[in-house]
Write a structure and sequence with these properties.
Structural class: mainly alpha
Largest sheet: none
Helix content: over 70%
Number of strands: 0
Radius of gyration: 20 Å
Oligomer: single chain
Distance between the termini: 39 Å
Length: 85
């Protein structure tokens, strides 16, 4: 049982991993923050990084809302009893 739990936990954690290079390219493309290494973010004004963080949180909230709405609708459909044939 412990093995199964560890396997499930590791698989779940891998599914939410962020690829550093993809994220670095995203920052450059969308927010005009070009860095070769994330330690270079110290050179950017805090206000600029705060606005990027706010945009990332807003996008994550929208995605969570959409996923929640989809699960809610799907869950509601599967829980509604169907007439017996």
């Amino acid at each position: 049982m412990t093995r199964l739990f560890r396997f499930g936990l590791r698989g779940g954690m891998r599914s939410i991993e962020i690829n550093r290079e993809d994220f670095r390219r995203y920052l450059a493309r969308k927010h005009k923050i070009h860095v070769a290494d994330f330690r270079q973010l110290r050179n950017f004004p805090v206000e600029q990084l705060d606005s990027v963080a706010a945009a990332l949180v807003r996008d994550a909230q929208r995605l969570a809302l959409l996923e929640g709405a989809g699960f809610g609708l799907g869950g509601m459909i599967t829980l509604v009893p169907t007439p017996a044939c």
